Amino acid sequence: MAKAKEIHTNNYMQINPKDFINIFVNLYSNKDMFAHIPAIMLWGMPGVGKSQSVKEAADLLAKKLNKKANVVVASLLLMNPIDLRGIPAKTEDDNGDMVARWLTPEIFKMDASEDIVNVLFLDEISAAPPSVQAAAYQICLDKRVGEHKLPKNCIVIAAGNRTTDKAVAYKMPKPLGNRLTHFEMIADPENWEYWAYHNGIDMRIIAFIKNNPDYLCNFDPSSDDVAFPTPRSWEMVNTYLKCGEMQDMFGCIAGTIGYGTAQEFSTYVNVYDKLPAWEDIANGKLKAFPRKLSNGNPDAMYALSTMIASHCVTLCKKADVSKEQEMKKLNETLSNVCKFISLIPQSEYITVTCKDLCHSVSQDAIDILVSNPDFSNLISEIADDIMP
Q1: pLDDT of 158-179, one tens digit each?
Q2: Higher-confidence residue: 167 or 78?
Q3: What does the radius of gyration of the chain's CA atoms come to, in whole angstroms?
Q4: 149 phi and psi angles, rounded to 5 deg
Q5: Is the model's pLDDT at 5 over the cut of 50?
Q6: Is the dihedral of CA 134, 138, 144, 146 positive or negative?
Q7: Which CATH number fits domain 6-186: 3.30.565.10, 3.30.300.30, 3.30.70.120, 3.40.50.300?
């Protein structure tokens, strides 16, 4: 199980999204303990990736168990106690007497079959009024409210911002806090980079964050700025870059991550756009390393390593190992890429590029890479430095 990184002043552990996903999958893979595991509470600044991590963890667990994932998001900030308890309705009991029964809320209407993993995600629990937090007590402890029960195949996860984040947040009552296992989610550039490679994030964003890791998450609760970089806002920038060129989208990007950060990113994009074409690298047309990069400018070299890794991730993900011709073509491309990497004048950037490539691909892709003779020869002397 992944180790937590450090203890927060509120006396709970800090983890990055990858650590949380590993902990979640390891915990709930144990069928005998499934129903006994306490509900987990994820604390964290806005935009750090709490909601997305829960959804990814549910999908990965379902895949491991060969089941389907059903994630029900209950945004408690928008709820009243009656939304969790249900609306009373007049009805007859078995003796014909009139009684009040509570209609079942939608969040309790889940598929209880064996081939489903249900996850009830109580989002923004710290922003919910105390009366709603109180209604969540029983859900977290007993997976029920009154007569309404969650099915046995349901996992309860809660999340919210800290009171120090200058977000809408109430101090969590101690009785509720004592019903939860607490973690603080933090942004981790290396972990985010792997996620970005596999989720279609623009390679210019990945390269910029790799060269400027502090810009992945630059949240200052004491500032009145409403536009600042976070993992969530960079995903929004990625959307804008799909809509148009950097110069056309600059206003939208500045309004998402802040003007200063947008300016620095724009300058970096200009460097990135001057790199050699990927097609020339993949086809083996470049027989010498470009002179304009030979001085080893760090911005350009990190951008180059990111471009190579990003394209190789895409190629390996699409590869069908059962098709001989397809694998032959892939290996030809990988050989050309390796030959180009070996042309880099500075040995430290050969190491950086190979490390970036190995750390960005999946285990299946690693197997494809190491089976390529040119790649194996390239990394033979630096394997200890680049393997995850």
Answers
A1: 998 876 665 556 677 788 788 8
A2: 78
A3: 25
A4: -115, 140
A5: no
A6: negative
A7: 3.40.50.300
